[in-house]
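Incident log, entry 3
Record: Transposase (79 residues)
Problem: checksum mismatch between cached and fresh output.
Input:
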Amino acid sequence: MSKRKQHHPECKAKVALEALKGEETVSELASRFGVRPTMIHSWKHALLDGASGVFERGAVKKPEVDERQVKELHAKIGE
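Fresh output:
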């Protein structure tokens, strides 16, 4: 059984930007970069959906870890 190929974020961004340019078809990009056209479409949509976040001012990212929950879990581990 083969393992899925992992693509780096830089590679995904490059392919998605090329798709947005529209100079080549998705099929041409897929053969050039060695990925499936459906992946290019999903990366392109992800880029478009997340692009507005680049221009937000003063937006504070929500921390990925809830500190209160971490303290509770540490207390349980200590019991």
